[in-house]
Amino acid sequence: MIYFLDTADVKAIARCVDLYPVAGVTTNPSLIARENRPLGDILKDIRDTIGPDKMIHAQVLSPDADIMVDEAQRLRDRVGEGFHVKVPVTAQGMKAISKISSLGIPVTATAIVTAEQALMAAVAGASYTAPYVNRLDNICGDGIRVVSEIAHLFKTHQLDALLLTASFKNVQQIHDVAMAGAHSATLPPDLLELLIVHPLTDSGVSGFVSDWEGVYGKGATILDLI
Question: 91-102 and 115-124 helices cross at what angle (nearest 10)?
Answer without folding.
Answer: 30
